[in-house]
Amino acid sequence: MIVKSTVPVGTNDKIEAIVRGALQSAADVDIVSNPEFLAQGSAVYDTLHGSRIVVGTESANAEAKMREIYADYGQPIVSVSRKSAELIKYASNDFLALKISFVNEIANLCDILGADIEEVTEGMGYDPRIGNSFFTCRDWLWRIVFSERHEGTALARGRSRFCLTDD
């Protein structure tokens, strides 16, 4: 059984115990954590052209089957334990949220100091350790939330928005 959903760490171990208990036999059942890394509005593209495929299982047989399924995708396969796969999904989402929060704070500094957030993030983005993803708000990707403390002149400049992930 393949679980694609984002689930709390340890959930797939519990699912395996429930399934094995319900079968009441020595049936060969493997639970695989195979989290999705999809952006809103680009699920098909992200599935076919993702940055990696995470496969979490304790079974060599299940891992081999998953490698066979994904053989033609041309993406690196990260084979780990189920718990690690579950945590990779959360850690990835949380890191992106952290990056967004950081850029929001830099935008606040830009407003206070008179710097331009787009210039600052462009300059930061050329550093390969940082990259330029998650530096801009895109209508298809973000919800716009207005802050009371920025409704004055910042609103007129279009700088009163904060980026929040939809995931």
TrEMBL record:
Gene3D superfamilies per record: N-(1-d-carboxylethyl)-l-norvaline Dehydrogenase, domain 2, NAD(P)-binding Rossmann-like Domain
Domain UDP-glucose/GDP-mannose dehydrogenase N-terminal intervals: 2-69
Domain of life: Bacteria
Ranges for domain UDP-glucose/GDP-mannose dehydrogenase dimerisation: 83-136
GO molecular function, one term: NAD binding
InterPro entries in alphabetical order: 6-PGluconate_DH-like_C_sf, 6PGD_dom2, NAD(P)-bd_dom_sf, UDP-Glc/GDP-Man_DH_dimer, UDP-Glc/GDP-Man_DH_N
Family: Belongs to the UDP-glucose/GDP-mannose dehydrogenase family.
Descriptive protein name: UDP-glucose 6-dehydrogenase
